[in-house]
Design brief:
single chain; 742 residues; mainly beta; Immunoglobulin-like; 4 domains; eleven-stranded antiparallel β-sheet; six-stranded parallel β-sheet; 35 strands; 14% helix
Length: 742
């Protein structure tokens, strides 16, 4: 017979190591009552082993897998003893321990009257469990301090009665004489759960600002066993006190699937966090209290003097001698940043309990809030590599917890096809098809980071793909906030690109339409804008570039691909910089344009949301959009057609010269698509070189390479010489235009 016994409570007192010790003496002088609060002890053991040996027959193997999982958790409520000088502990303990051994045997044998080998196997599983649950046990707690202000906390937990059970099973396959599977269960039987004892390191130090509160944690791992102690103690407090404060967020994609936040991992900006405070009532009477959750800056290098802010408050009634939980759901939007744009690496949240309007206890916990994932959407003739430096940019701007997700980097989660790279004129996805791939990648980023909201940064055509996704399939959540917190577009042709007209028409006439290029023609973007109208509350921002003179018959300056009016369209938050289209994914635009719009603190984020509310719902385009001032002949659809166009194939090292017809006009332009390894030289009808676009120059790296002659021309035949330094055959598409008006 097993006899259950408990250890008597060990008096909790104050031990001084020397007379006149200033910190300890001050603590003793300030308060000599016993400590009260909570001490939590846990013991976790997890181990596994695998061993494979040859069977005696030499024709098979036997593999033994064993594992142990042992979790022991004790919550000790510490109370002052009746005489007031010492304290006593009452423990609630839970144990779950499982040991499993699995043996898999495989052999080959020839059965009697058979000529071929048989594969025989057997599996044997042995499992043992120990369980225990006890409440109200007396526990020993000891707190000692030293003259230098250090202290230690130790706990002694009694043995108690639990149960043990087990099971054995066996299964077989392929034996000469079949064997039946067996499954045997061992009924529960009483067992004694051993007593435990554990102490902190003794290196924790009392805080001079509050000598009557001790909070801390200590953990030791040895031989696969981790023991941890966590304590929150005070003395000379009121009847009400805070036992614990914890944080939870929801596991994406299941709303209301709450799970406690691991301190080292934290949560993501924009997630809803459930704040829970446990309030204890040590008095003999029922008590009503108010719990306030505050945003505290104490300890911050720059804002330590800033007063605490109020996140929310909850009322609670706590019966005599009992505890109650209070919960508040807090929107963490903006808390990865300060309002001045500085990264906030750690959020400190303080819970206060008030009795009749007077604060009687408080507790502060750290919560790491990482920025929302940044999903990066590439444009035409591009891929995820366009965003190569951005992860380093994000890490430098905040921390390693700010993650970039370039669409297509892990193609199993979604891959857009917009031509992949320059010189590829093969089939592509439509904007709608790429929007589906974008949605898949957004969900991957959310799952990877457990983030309910993300930011999008889109380059060029990626902005149209993002707009389509938001309009067509972006989900909504019960928190009322859009899945996409902000769409920042860089050089997006929101009214199309006349360059696409000039380059797509030759391919279409040749029966080789490239869908991504065709959809960028102004006439097609006009239809896109008429259909893609719902922003669903997502703020839009756009950066336009204007360093280059007119190209592709555009009336205005451009970034080499997109005219300034096309990028700005109907988007109120816009900015113009002297930056090339192909340079918009570099560090400069991130620092000057992108980061100020997504690195928003809680105050700035609220202001931004209010500002964009009036324009972030729907945006209907005019019935007829101006085609960016294009002059010249039009086809029946209203699109412009080139004066002259041609598709060429150039071999490695080859030099080609073609005749270019030139009409009488106020100016003349030539736009062509070619790899950067191809050089172009334009010669007029008098044999003079009038312009060139050479490989190895910045102009050669532009998507639409243009030569513009800003003077009047007369009718005649000019020559264009093309030279290739490539190692492979390359296609070239060229078109000419005239009479562009600045």
């Amino acid at each position: 017979m097993t006899i259950m016994r408990t250890l008597p409570a060990l008096a909790v007192g104050l031990t001084l190591s020397g007379a006149g010790a200033p910190v300890a003496a001050a603590a003793a002088a300030q308060c000599t009552a016993g400590w009260e609060g909570t001490v939590e002890y846990s013991r976790h053991q997890a181990s596994s082993d695998s061993k494979t040996v040859k069977r005696v027959s030499g024709k098979g193997t036997e593999t033994t897998n064993s594992s142990i999982n042992d979790d022991y958790v004790a919550h000790v409520a510490v109370r002052p003893a009746p005489d007031g000088e010492y304290s006593i502990g009452t423990a609630n303990i839970n144990l779950n321990a499982t040991a499993t051994e699995t043996i898999n045997s495989n052999d080959q044998m020839i059965c009697p009257h058979e000529r071929t080998m048989r594969q025989m196997s057997g599996q044997f599983v042995s499992k043992s469990e120990r369980r225990g649950n006890a409440s109200g046990l007396e526990a020993g707690v000891d707190i000692t301090t030293d003259n230098d202000g250090t202290y230690s906390v130790s706990v002694r937990l009694p043995e108690f009665q639990g149960t043990a059970s087990g099971s054995n099973s066996a299964s077989f396959s392929g034996q000469c004489k079949s064997k039946e599977a067996t499954n045997q269960k061992i009924a529960d039987m009483p067992t004694t759960i051993d007593a435990m004892r554990f102490s902190s390191s003794g290196e924790d130090r009392m805080q001079p600002s509050d000598l009557n509160r001790l909070t801390g944690a200590h953990s030791v791992t040895s031989y696969g066993v981790t023991e941890s102690l966590r304590w929150n103690l005070r003395r000379c407090g009121g009847d009400l006190r805070l036992v614990d404060v914890k944080f939870e967020d929801m596991r994406f994609p299941t709303w209301d699937a709450w799970k406690e936040i691991v301190e080292q991992v934290g949560t993501i900006d924009g997630n809803i966090v459930r704040l829970t405070a446990v309030v204890a009532n040590d008095s003999p009477d029922e008590k009503s209290a108010t719990v306030k959750f505050r945003d505290t800056y104490k300890g911050d290098k720059w804002d330590g003097a800033k007063p605490d802010g109020l996140l929310g408050e909850v009322s609670v009634t706590v019966p005599a001698g009992q505890q109650r939980e209070v919960q508040f759901k807090w929107d963490s939007s903006g808390y990865a940043w300060f309002d001045d744009g500085r990264p906030r690496l750690m959020q400190r949240i303080k819970a206060e309990v008030e009795d009749k309007g007077k604060k009687v206890d408080d507790m502060t916990r750290n919560l790491k809030v990482a920025p929302k994932p940044l999903v990066l959407v590439h444009g035409l003739w591009s891929n995820w590599r366009a965003w190569g430096p951005w992860q380093n940019i994000l890490t430098t701007s905040h921390s390693y917890d700010w993650k970039a997700f370039p669409v297509g980097e892990k193609p199993e989660h979604g891959r857009m096809n917009t031509g992949d790279e320059m010189g590829n004129f093969g089939p592509t996805n439509t904007i709608a098809q790429n929007a589906v791939e974008l949605g898949n990648y957004v969900r991957y980023a959310q799952k990877d980071r457990n983030a309910w909201h993300v930011d999008l940064v889109a380059h060029s055509m990626g902005g149209l793909i993002s707009r389509r996704y938001i309009h067509a399939t972006m989900p909504t959540y019960p928190d009322g906030k859009p899945q996409i917190s902000h769409l920042v577009m860089l050089g997006t042709p929101n009214r199309g690109s006349s360059c696409a007209d000039l380059m797509s028409i030759p391919l279409e006439l040749a029966g080789r339409p490239m869908e991504a290029l065709r959809e960028l023609r102004p006439i097609n973007v006009m239809k896109f804008n008429a259909e893609t109208v719902d922003r669903k509350g997502v703020p839009f921002s756009v950066l336009a570039g204007n360093p280059l003179p007119p190209v592709c018959r555009m009336l205005t300056r451009s970034d080499g691909v997109v005219a300034e009016p096309s990028a700005k369209w109907m988007i109120a938050d816009n900015e113009t910089q002297a930056i090339l289209h192909t340079s918009m994914t570099e560090t400069g635009p991130f620092s000057s344009f992108v980061m100020p719009r997504i690195a928003l603190g809680p105050g700035e984020q609220s202001a931004s949301a209010s500002k964009s509310a009036a324009t972030a719902g729907s945006a209907r385009a005019p019935a007829r959009l101006m085609l960016l001032g294009v002059e010249g002949p039009e086809d029946e659809s209203g699109s412009t057609t080139p004066d002259f166009s041609k598709i060429l194939l150039i071999a490695p090292g080859q030099s080609l010269t073609i005749t270019i017809p030139v009409e009488e006009a106020s100016n003349f332009g030539l736009t062509f698509l070619a790899a950067s390894s191809v050089s172009a030289t334009l010669i007029d009808d008098k044999g003079q070189v009038v312009a060139s676009n050479r490989s190895g120059t910045p102009e050669a790296n532009q998507i639409f390479r243009s030569i513009f002659i800003d003077r009047a021309t007369t009718k005649g035949s000019w020559k264009l010489t093309l030279e290739s330094k490539d190692r492979a055959d390359r296609e070239i598409i060229l078109s000419t235009w005239s009479n562009a008006i600045q």
